Amino acid sequence: MPYVIFAFLVIALIDFLPLIKQKKYKELFCVGAFFITGVVLSILYVSGVVIPSPMVLLGDFLKKVLHLSY
Amino acid sequence: MFIKFLVKKITFLFKQNQTPPIETQSAEKKTKGLSDKLKDNIDSLKLIFGDSGDLKIHEILFGKNLELSGALIFIDGLVDSKTITESIIKPLILNKNIGDGMEIENMSMDIIKKTILCSGDMSEIKDQTQMIEGCLAGETVFLLDGFKEALLISTKGWEKRNVTEPQTELVVRGPREGFTEDFRTNTALLRRRIKSPDFKMEQMKIGRKSLTDVCIAYIDKVAQPRIIEMVKKRLEKLEVDSILDSGYIEEYIEDAPFSVFPTVGYSEKPDVIAGKLLEGRVAIIVDGSPFVLTAPYLFIESFQTSEDYCIRPLYASVTRMLRLMAYFISIFTVPIYIALTTFHQELIPTTLLFTFANASEGTPFPSFIEALIMVFSFEILREAGLRLPRPVGQAISIVGALIMGDAAVAAGLVGAPMVIAVAFTAVAGFVIPVQIDSVSILRFILMVFSAALGGFGIAIGLLGILVHLASLKSFGVDYFGTVIPSQDLQDSFVRMPLWSMSGRPKDIAYIDKKRRKTFIPSTRRSNDHQET
Amino acid sequence: MQIDKGKITAVQFMFSVACYMQASSLLTAFFVGITKQDSWIVVILAFLVCLPFLFIFISIMRNFPDKNLIQINTLVFGPVVGNIISAMYIWYFLTLTSLNLRDLSDFVHQTIMPKTPSIVIMFLFLLVCAWAVRFGIGVVTRYNTLFSIIQIVILALAVVFTANLIDFQNFLPMFDQPAMEYVHGTHVVSTIPFGEVVVFLMITPNIKLPPKKISKFFLWGFVIGGIVLVVVILRDTAVLGNVLGLFSLPSFETQRMASLMEALSRLEIMFASVLIILLFAKVTFLYYVTVLSLAQIFKFETFKPFILSIGALAIVYAFILYSSSMQHVESGTNATPILWTLFEFVLPMLTLLIAKMRKLPQTEEVV
User: What is the pLDDT of residues B199-215, one digit of tens each?
Assistant: First the structure.
């Protein structure tokens, strides 16, 4: 857990500082969105929370709802 | 306190991407004109030079009635005194007819230059800075009372080294001339090999205190103007104290100062430099250094030696591939050995495994520490061998090799296979002298990676090095362009025969891209003469 | 508007396509479980099935020579629908990146370093990939030629070394299975190794050649990749026979059984090294395409700020996607082909049809 947080801090430092300096707030917002997603998912995963996987969900959807499977 | 320091350092690292503020030009040197009184000029000169023992001021009186008084100023040791006596003092003093047939008022420096003095290289100067620079460059200043101009007469003659075989690039077959420290000798050596008028040399002086002569040489329609511009701009931007060696310039203008790979090449032989100029590169000749720089410099050039082109192509190709293999052996042997013995013992063939196990039975350290000890002691040995005078050097190499290797094994400090691995690595490393710094550092980095992660660590390290190589550019040309298949492969891993290398390297040459027409030599030449 | 102004030559492009497909040749567990000893038939069938779609890709590239896939989507489908489709493609690229990263990490974790946590392997590997992506398309595809040729050479060597184990009886019985299996197998192979070349539509503007001549190189790259895949399957079937379907890494097992004299017996080191370098090429390329598409859809000037964040997301995503490799293989045989069909076959066909109907591009018709 502490490694994860440290790694994300370093990523934030390297990525965000130049953007703040160049005042590119639109880019900051977009990168920030993906960054926050990554942070949230990582912390959840490291804490042991089972996150449903999109591929598995889509596979179930195809099989059960659309009956499109072999 | 520490946090403030950290923050400052990190913001500095990010500020580096912005262009640094252009250093303001040093205040325009006040150009002081010469006065027309001889005594004033000489006094101001004595003031500037102080009590320098080698500044010589020789006052002369000449003319029909000894009415003209002048002075010769030069620095002893930089001038050829015979020239001064024969070409300057003699004509002035022995010619009793100066001023005969014309009024004193019509006398001028121009007339003295054109009719009286016997030297081929003279120029008129009007200000003091030029006079001082001329003196320091080995020229004689001729001052005349009553005239605001002075004459600068070229009388350079100082001790210089003869043109000998260079120590760093020995060849079996091929020319053996090498550059010397004298600027004019070097430019002459190049001129003699490329007699085309397209061969241009642009001169400039760099260094506030040393005012070193630096010249950019290129062949006009062959070198890319973009590269010439880049080199010129980088040299002109230099505001440094002194340039004592071409290595200084190399560090100031290179593309990737933090990379282990050199992006500016050097050579001590005129034929090598001439060959590179003909391919479209730019050469930088520095006064005081026998090493001439070339830009751009690509990775594959470290493996090309001058001898490759003087011997026949098949053997040259074999030797070149041997050099490439030696380079890789030198970098990878020790890391692979560490990885094999620490992580992947199952990959070693069984009989060899017993030997390794036997050897590491008595040794206390893990492979990585052993390797570190051996590589470190080898580097010390190499450095010591360079510094010692020659007679003692031989003894040290024997002592080092035998005693350190053998005794270390006998004492149980390191295992015998490790000594062999490091010795082989070290010898292989000397095959490419230019890349020695990259070999040592990369080997160490890969050792750390392999000790940490084994085979995967070596793979990661290797991929990292490859990515770094791929991203390097030397003056706009890709550094490691050899892996992209193109016409330039003709001179990379193999050396294609000269008759098939009909085009200059694509990335570097500009307008004139063809060297010769490709022709395939006939195999039946000896039969041509049979009919007669 | 081109974000990355690097250019690659046509020969580099051809070998990039070949290298990308060769990377999939090492991880054949998806379809050999279905058709076992007849897998080579399935591969050839899938190759033939994919050829028309390859021509669709080439045709899209020729019609829109200086636009990459995201720009084409916005142009053809209009801004709203185009952006939705582009977002779906970005999800597709990110999933591909994470899947391949997961493959590599699983392989290294199971065979070379069982005690190292996967996160370390993924992190270090992706760090090198991120560094390569930072420099643009030139560095990303620089070594693909070399890697492709290395893989072909090692494949030839491996065939030679396993020659004594080849038994042509292992191909029998042929055509013995229910037809549905063959259809299933063809579907899987045409979407997973072959159809994934749709990602190359993202680098159309970076190729240094007029679009008319691209088709030759794209086709040749595809052919080289296809041939390599067929040879790999043939060799594996010839050596292993029916039990091919049981292994998670059939090529690995084949090379493990090979030996050259008694001294060099662990030849799977060749397989491991080739796998690592080819997957490096593939993951770097997919990573680059993901980051580039993101920057393109938001119309930024450079994709550099995205690299690290997307990298972190890709690692987490790789862990989330499947909890075990069995689930991975199972999903790969059932759900993945159907999902990928949408992205690789349906959408490009729709794009081309609508482009032709709307008579795009509005400049003169490119013949």
Answer: 999 999 888 888 888 99
Mutation target to probe the A interface, by most A beta carbons within 10 A, among B7, B9, B14 is: B14
Beta bridge partners of C8: C207
Residue-wise pLDDT for B468-486, tens only, equals 998 888 888 888 877 777 7
> Inter-chain contact C322–A63, Cβ cutoff 8 Å?
no
Structure tokens at C46: 């899938």
- d(CA A38, nearest CA chain C) in Å: 5
- Residues β-bridged to residue B473: B478
B350 close to A (CB below 8 A): no
CA distances from C99 to B422, C31, C93, C287, C315 (A): 41, 16, 10, 11, 10
Residues of A with Cβ-Cβ distance to B17 under 8 angstroms: 18
Q: Give CA–CA dist C177/C38, Å, rounded.
A: 9
In a domain, C361, yes or no: no
Residues of C in contact with B349 (CB under 8 A): 262-265
Q: Which of B474, B497, B524 is the last residue of a domain?
A: B474
Residue A39 domain boundaries: 2-65
B190 is in which domain, residue-wise?
Answer: 183-297
Domain of C40, CATH number, reads: 1.20.1740.10
Residue B121: count of CB within 10 angstroms of its CB: 10
Does residue B399 contact residue B392 with C-beta atoms inside 8 Å?
no
Instruction: Give the type of residue at B154.
Output: S
- Phi/psi for B395 (5° steps) reads -65, -40
The number of angstroms, rounded, from the C-alpha of B372 to the middle of its chain's C-alpha atoms is: 32
Answer whether 0.90 is exceeded by the pTM: no
DSSP state of B509: B
Taking contacts as CB-CB distances below 8 angstroms, the residues of chain C near A27 are 298, 300, 305
Contacts of A45 in chain C (CB under 8 A): 316, 319-320
Q: Which two tokens stand for residue C44?
A: 């050839």
Residue of A nearest to C321 (CA): A53
